[in-house]
Amino acid sequence: MKLNLFILALFLLSSCKKDDVVIGTQLNNGIGVTSPVRSLATTVTPANAVNVKDQGAKGDGVTDDTKAITNALAYAKAHGVANIYFPDGSYMIGQIGNGGGIIKLADGVGMMGNGPATCHIKLTGGRKNPNSIFYQDYVGMPSIGNLVIQGIDFNGNLPLQTYDADYQFCHALSINNGKNIEVKNCKFQSFRGDGLLFGDCFETTLNQHIVTNVNVHDSEFFNIYREGIMFCAVNGASFYNNNVHGDGYLVGGVDIERHSVNETVLNVAVYNNTFNFADGYGPVERGGPKVRYRRAVTMGFFYNGYKNATADSLSGHHKIYNNKIYQGQIDCWGIINVSISGNCFTNTYENITGVNFLTTSAINIADPATTKGLINISADNNIINSAMGNGIVFHGYTRVQANANTITGTRTDGINLINTSGYFYGNTITDAGTTTQKASGFIVSGDSSGLIITTNQAANTTAGTYRTMDYVVKIAGVNNGMVAPKIQNNKGKNMTAGIISLYWLQSTFADLLNNLAG
């Protein structure tokens, strides 16, 4: 019996010592010793990834982790590993870099964190005209591709930097030439430049640099000075399910921009995004009063423009659809083959007199020069509730259309057509204009050969002196087109002056049929 009790005591003592070790490890973890069990839960490196902490990164918000991140990228590239992994933490970028940027990206090597709420990469403060964080060194690595960037918050720390007035080149990531790039579940904030830049500008030879197959989605862009994202020298890109807001956006939330005749900018889709400029202001460098209203999406060919001022096939085929836009517009300057559909605008009035890079129309489709061959723009099924200016403007385009749009409360005419020909069907326009400056559903000026305006409706929802709309369709100037416009089957309710108004010098130059009141 005594022997049995002795054995039992040894067993219990052994069990207690084992428990003490476990308890002691857990307690030690509370004072800074990592528990092996918890370590597996929080710092395990995903498959096919290099942990930046294994290359010396601290992620403590204090230590300069630039070299460790650079080493991790180089190690992953050398060993054929697809990603570098950032465990939760704040990784400070303390080095200065060069004009291209600070950390060189590696072909085929992505970057991943657990999410932008817990994984941060941040520039240290106190810089003058800081360089971009990540960039492609296209001399040493002429192509970057086949990579995914996900789950990271990129922060340029803008309030703690200083800048020359014209400086705008601090980006989170800059990729000039490559293919197959995906960015998802990231945050880009506080950059004196772009959140993301794809492509290159002012090429000396055709498509010297170009990026193909880019996808950016489910990310946030906040307080970005120039553009949330810029696509230039790009063929094939999508931007969707993103949230763009805050201060800044000198050019726009999304900029699809061609700079020279040697660039290709084709096939960009922007859809299912929210652009909420009601929660911030444009930069003072835009001039004029400080306003919230900005360009959500802008497409353009500026600078010298097309060769011989004739549109070519190297820019266009963009699709902008199903976006929600607050205090913003969609802008298309000199680009062809574009579809703008299903977008929803909510804009209250702001005085933008003297503010650069803006027009008052919710959708502005225009030619900044006198380019020939501007064709094939459609603006369909958009819902525009905007007190800024026109709902839709076409200027200098042919073979265009605007169908089934709902336009409410514009300060000026609902749809403004200047030197434009096309087909306009099934639009509903209410309460355009003001009590002191009446407006029409459509206003037409300039040459518009073969213009068709049919089966549209316009209405005042107010009565008496509070009515703001005078006509459904108003021809406001001489039309030298070869074919008279067809204005048929349109209806107006509660107009102050009538249904159709023709220009007094051409009172018979229109094919009118079945335009009715009521």
Automatic annotation (TrEMBL):
InterPro entries: PbH1, Pectin_lyas_fold, Pectin_lyase_fold/virulence, RHGA/B-epi-like_pectate_lyase
PROSITE patterns according to UniProt: PROKAR_LIPOPROTEIN
Pfam families for the chain: Pect-lyase_RHGA_epim
Ranges for domain Rhamnogalacturonase A/B/Epimerase-like pectate lyase: 50-239
UniProt superkingdom: Bacteria
UniProt-recorded name of the protein: Rhamnogalacturonase A/B/Epimerase-like pectate lyase domain-containing protein
